[in-house]
Every structure is written in C-alpha cells, then in structure tokens.
Input
Amino acid sequence: MRLSRLLPRSLAFRVIAFSTIWAVAAMFVIATIISALFRQASERGFESLLSAHLFNLISSVGVDENGNLVGTPNLGDLRFNEPGSGWYWSVVPVSDNVEGELSSLSLTQPVASPPTSEVPFDRDFQRRYFEFGPEGELLEVLESEYLLDAADRIARFRMMGNRTEFEQEISAFNRQVFVYLGLFGLGMIAINAAAILLGLQPLRRVREALAEIREGRSQRLEGEFPSEIAPLAEETNALIENNRRIVERARTQVGNLAHSLKTPLAVLLNEGRSIGAGKGQIVVEQATAMQQQVEHYLQRARMAAQRESVVFRTPVGPTMERMTRVVQKLAREKEVSLSLPAEEITFAGEREDLEEITGNLLENAAKWSRSRVRVAIAVPREDDPAQPHFQLIVEDDGPGIPEEKAREALQRGRRLDETKPGTGLGLAIVSDLVKEYGGRLELGRSDLGGLRAVVTLRRTVS
Output
C-alpha cells in the first residue's frame, strides 16, 4: 500500500505534519547534543576540581620529626566543613614509620577503599573509583600515595566528591534544556503552520473562485495570483472557455439534427393520416414513436454536452407555480395543490430540464389521479451543506404502482396499463434527466393512496 493513501488528503495538514515531525526530531537531537556536551564539560570540571583539591591537600600535609601526620588544610570550600555534605578528604599512613590520620570535618564515618588488586594505581600513582558515602550518596574518589620526606615516609591522600549532587545538577540542566527547547519548538511549529497556511491562501482563493464558477456566480477565475499559481489560473480560464465553445457547438448540432428530422417526420405523419385504414394508422403510430424517441435522445445528448459545463441557475418557485397552473387548466376537474418552502430554492441546472422533469411527473399524476394531485418542494433534513439538495415531490390519489413494478415503470417505452394513452416514455425521461444531473428518483406509495414520486436534485446556495 502506498504511503500517500495512508495520509490525509489535505496538503496543508501534510506539510504541517511533516514540518512538525522534523521540528520535534530536530529539537530532540539538539537537546541531546547540548546535554551530552554539558555533561562532558561538567565531567572535566568535576575531575579537575578533584585533582586541584587533591594537590592542595598534598601540599598542606606533612610529618613531624616523630613521624606524625600534621597540617591544617584550607581548601577554600565550606563543604569540607559541613558534615554529610558529600565532599570529604582524608590522609592515612601507608608506611610503618608514619603515625596518625587526618580527615575533613565533613567526614563523620570512614569511607571504604577497594584493594589495589581490584583498582590499581596508574603510572602517576593515582586511582579513581566510586564508593558510597556516610549519607548513602555516591562518591567519586581520587586517591594518590605520596612520599612525604627523605625518610621514605608514605601517606595515602583521598579526595572525595559528591557524585549524586553532580548527577542532580545534570538532570536539572537537562530538564531546563528540554523545557526551553520545547517552548521554542512549539513557537517554531506555530509560526511554521501560520506561514504554511498563509502560503496556501492563494490556493484557497482559487478554490473559492472555482466554487463561484460552479455555482454560476462567475464566468472565469478573477484576481491576482502568485507566479506559481498564475499559470494554473490561466489554463483553467482557457479550459472553461474551451468547454463553453464545445457546449455551444453541441447545442448547435443538436438543433440542426432536430430541424433536419422535423420535416421528414411531419411528412410521414401526414402521409400516414392520408393513407388511413390499418396501414396508415401503423405509419402514424410508428412516426409518432420515432418523433418522441428522437426528442428523448436529443434531450439526453444535450444534457451530456452540458453536464461538465458551467452550472446554470433556475429559480424553482416560479417554475413550479407556472407548471401547476398549466396542469390545472388542462385537468380542470382535478385539484392540483402546490407547497413551497419559505426560503428561495435555486436549481443547479437549466430551466428547460426542470420543466421537463416536472411536466412529465405532473402529466403522469394528472392522468392517473382520481381527483387530487399534490406538489411540494422540500429540503431534506439530512442535507449536506457542502452539497445542498432539494426534493420535488409529486403525489396523486390514483391506483399507484406496486413496489415490485416500480423499476419496470422506469424502463423506456414500458407501459403498465395499455388502456391509458401515452408512449411509456414519461418516467423514463425523468429518470434519465435526473441521473444526468447526479440526482435520484424514488417511487413509492403516497398517503393519498396513489403514486409518490420524489426527485432529489442539486441546488445552489448564494
């Protein structure tokens, strides 16, 4: 599976997500490097401090003529005077001709020392190791043996630093680094997201301009666009203009075809009527069927030519009022009612197509109804604001269509009752026109007792 299929389709989301991931990774790497560099510098400083204190201790301690250790080391650090501070020193004899021990005031208990077999001295007669202090703290011990005088008197000097305190300082520094870099990273992500959204603003203007074209409020992309998007706008305008020319050419060809067939069909009808009898009736019926079939397919050809073109706008209310008045005049003995919503509904299509759909449904309802035809325009409750629709509902109190024959009624030329006049094309034409507009036709049972036809079509929102 390709990675692009797993990602959201939003370009802004992708760019912001990738930049955020990169920013988080970069901040983490930077924080890790800073922490590592700080630890290295602190380690060197800690070890240098231990070494300096050790050399000061060695220079401050000696032996008297009796071989006793003497000296009052002043290392300039008050922690050596504070009990349990974690900073200690001690001096113990190594050779037999040295007596006594010296230690800092902070050292309240002796600190163990590993045997030299485990931690040997280096060539400078020093060794480093870790031990736990009197308070349980971890100590780093720097130890050295030193010759005190010409009598070969040797003492062992131990300088101990608080390693636990050192690690706590490192941890505190790391926390501060991660907090500050985290805040900086959040600010950088916010600024980056704002810059990306601002940079994509021209694409949003293009989308809004295309929506205006689709809704019929504009004929071309208007406005100033950046140099990267300007060619896209120009090509889109050229495509719209070319599409408009194709539609006009298709309409002209459809009109020419209709005009060229009109006369031959009229001649056939006249000849059929003049012949009379059975054969003449057959010619009339077939010529009439041909005329209706040609009209049907010319209608579909015109719809196919305009389907990808700019969407037209047709007010629904006036069209419904005009169509119901016509039907009422043709069927004076029947009651035709119309219900319109308070809001103005605009059909996203041509007026002739809406009249064709409404006219066929009203004609079918008037033909089959007993006394009532009810027409209503409504907006579905579950309507999607991104793709708004409206419903044309036509009901009658006739016999209706059984559910199992509803699909059969939509087939071209299929008549469920041969006793009624007609060609069986009405509902088929409605179905084809509705499909061409991406709508839906549903047939069901009305509460009046007859057929309930519901047509769902796209509408425009100003």
Q: What stands out?
A: Residues 18 and 24 are 10 Å apart (CA to CA). The chain has a mean pLDDT of 83. The first strand starts at residue 62 and ends at 63.
